[in-house]
Design a protein that fits this description.
The chain is of the alpha+beta class and 187 residues long. It has helices at residues 3-11, 24-35, 74-81, 105-117, 156-185, and strands at residues 39-45, 48-54, 63-68, 88-94, 97-102, 124-127, 132-137, 141-148, 151-152. The protein has a single domain, classed as 2-Layer Sandwich (SSo0622-like fold). Helix 2 (24-35) packs parallel to helix 5 (156-185). The two termini are 25 Å apart.
Length: 187
Amino acid sequence: MDFDRQKKDILGKIDKSKKNSIDTNIESLINLINSKSNYYTSSSCSGRIMLIEKPDDKKQNCRWMYVTHELADINEVLSATKKPFKGKLWFKFESVILHVSCNSLQDADNLLILIKGLGLKRSGIISLHKKIVIEIIGTENVESLIGAESNLLVDETYLRAAIIDANEKMALNFGKIAKLSSAVAKL
């Protein structure tokens, strides 16, 4: 299947994400990339702060007790930690992630040069098989075990500090999305 047909098919599909919509903070970047003839997006997340209950090691059994794609509300996070949980409770911040299909290796190289120049240094080509796909991924992340066996392992002081840190990382993350939008506009 040629690139233009793949692009039309992918962009015509229904959003199957858990949220069922594109994150507001990345929507203009996605629209910009998709407006370029040699690129299209296949998945994205603008970044998120969350509490996840993991009763076991199976991803499908995880429960999001709190999630936001914006700055976290300290009181809402603290309230969510008081809910009953099984297994382990994790506090996480994940930065931007975006998958972009490219028409050619030269297009991929052009985009990678631009991305790496913005400090998104973990980004790279993740597929060359049926299509050329670049993963754009931020480096700021937080993953902290905060509860086990229905008991919190940390105090409120720690949680507040972790939430403030995650919010600072989210703000940096949004800045990188804005810089990436400005750079992609010049492609």
